[in-house]
Specification:
It is built from one helix and four strands. With 89 residues, it is α+β, with helices and mostly antiparallel strands.
Length: 89
């Protein structure tokens, strides 16, 4: 059976869902990541911690449902990540 995986990046964690061809939820996984408060009124997240949560939930779901899969991604539409084009960091 084929599955669609949806990776939902929220404010405090990542959820990955596997839905089958009939639209039935077959598996999900969730991991929180820390919020950092560098000063009053500010909230920051570490992109590496978010990525680690994405990989962990993705791997949890794929380990249960197997392949083939298609992936969809949604995010909060508020996050900005900057990186070095040469190093990928």
């Amino acid at each position: 059976m084929a599955y669609v995986l949806s990776i939902d990046a929220g404010t405090t964690g990542i959820r990955t869902y596997a839905v089958d061809e009939a639209g039935v939820l077959r598996m999900s996984a969730y991991r929180e990541f820390p919020q950092h408060f560098p000063r009053p009124g500010w909230v920051e997240h570490d992109a590496d911690e978010i990525w680690e949560a994405v990989v962990a939930t993705f791997n949890d779901v794929v380990a249960k449902v197997g392949l083939p899969i298609t992936v969809g991604i949604t995010n909060q539409r508020e996050t900005v990540v900057a990186w070095d084009r040469l190093t990928g960091r």
